[in-house]
Amino acid sequence: MKKIIALLIILTLPGVALGAVKEQAPKASLAYHLKPALLEQPSAGSFMGGLDFGFKASYRLASSPAKTYRRSAFGSFDLQGLLTTDSNHNPRPITVSLGAGGAINLSGPKIAERGPRPGTEIIKQKGFYYGRASGSLDVGYETDQAGDNRNFIVGAKLGYVFTQPTSWYQDFIPSFVAAYDYVDIDKSQMQEQLGADDGDYQRGMVAASWKFRIGHYGRLPEYLTGLSLHFDLRFYHDFNRSAAIEDADKDQAHYFACSLNYTFKKALWGNTLTGIYLQFNDGRIPPATDDDTQVFLGVILWQGTIGR
User: Fold this and answer.
1) What is the pLDDT of residue 119?
2) Omega before 287 cis (within 30°)?
3) pTM, to two decimals
4) Would 188 be classed as within a structural domain?
5) How far is CA 242 from the centre of its chain?
6) Integer Cα distance of 302 and 308 in angstroms
7) Given 53, 190, 220, 267, which residue has the most CB atoms within 10 angstroms?
8) Considering the domain boundaries, does residue 116 fall inside one?
9) Which domain covers residue 245, as residue numbers?
10) Which of 65, 63, 74 lies closest to 11, judged by CA?
11) pLDDT value at residue 44
């Protein structure tokens, strides 16, 4: 616990590191989604109800005045998870975290001067966009739905996103996340069952995701422009675990998800129903302890972003 208290203090460092940049008016944003679904899960032997939810609030503390390679410092709050009607068959946890970090936009505007003749210009810099890179320090808490495996976590995260594709082939550029966490066990039914007593340990994670805007490819009918295909791939590996955990193959995990989404051109039911989706996922996300396969058929409610 002392490590967590110390690293809570360290969370202030990203803001200090960017304290030299010119401060602008702080801006807050909230990204959210609620996605109820009907699940088919072989291990459960029947259909279940589920609710995929997420709320992420971000607050820009400061940003540089430069429009090219603009830097910023931010604070964040993140709550994510999946709830099912059978808590014993849920391979995805509920997580909550606080973070602070910095980001740099790998982009710049077109810069031009008036040319020697009317109607001409001299280009000093072509406009460009190569994505956005970020880094943060985070503290949080994670639990499986049943509450049998729970951890305090603190760690560092690096990320990259490419959110402004202009051509279909740019959809193949993935978003990346790499994280390294210190895990302080609050409760572990898995360790009790295996006769292990590991105490604190470390966990690494790498992930990649893709979004293919298939509704914009070719000359598809206008009503199909809301069609998109999403992939999410994650790998986890624990360090400094006991032989009992390693022998049971519980020191590493994978998670794969693929979803076909259709976003309505205009939200229904008072702007609450924004789309429908079909999803397949396999594996588990720690601290969930059992791999599983799920197939979702659901609707997308209240998905969007407030502020920028």
Assistant:
1) 72
2) yes
3) 0.87
4) yes
5) 30
6) 17
7) 190
8) no
9) 2-110+122-306
10) 74
11) 66
CATH code assigned at 26 = 2.40.160.40
In sequence order, which residues have a C-beta less than 8 Å from that of residue 104 and are 6 or more positions away? Answer: 69, 70, 71, 72, 132, 133, 134
- Is residue 115 in some structural domain? no
Residue 76: the pLDDT is 96
Beta bridge partners of residue 52, listed in sequence order = 35, 82
Residue 156's identity, in one-letter code, is: A
* Number of domains within the chain: 1
So what's the pLDDT on residue 108? 86
Query: CB 248: neighbour CB atoms within 10 A?
Result: 15
Written as one letter, the residue type at 142 is E
> What residues are paired with 201 via a beta bridge?
183
pLDDT tens, 102-153? 999 998 887 777 777 777 777 777 778 899 999 999 999 999 999 999 999 9
117 is a domain residue: no
Give the DSSP per-residue string, the chain.
Answer: -HHHHHHHHHTTHHHHHTTTSPP---EEEEEEEEEEEEEEETTTTEEEEEEEEEEEEEEEEEE-S-SSS-EEEEEEEEEEEEEES-TTS--S-EEEEEEEEEEEEEEE--EEEE-SSTT-EEEEE--EEEEEEEEEEEEEEEE-TTSSEEEEEEEEEEEEE-----SGGGGGSPEEEEEEEEEEEEEEHHHHHHT----SEEEEEEEEEEEE-GGGSTT--GGGTTEEEEEEEEEEEEES--HHHHHTT-SEEEEEEEEEEEEEEEEETTTTEEEEEEEEEEE--TT--S-EEEEEEEEEEEEEEE--
The label of the residue with tokens 């609450």 reads 272
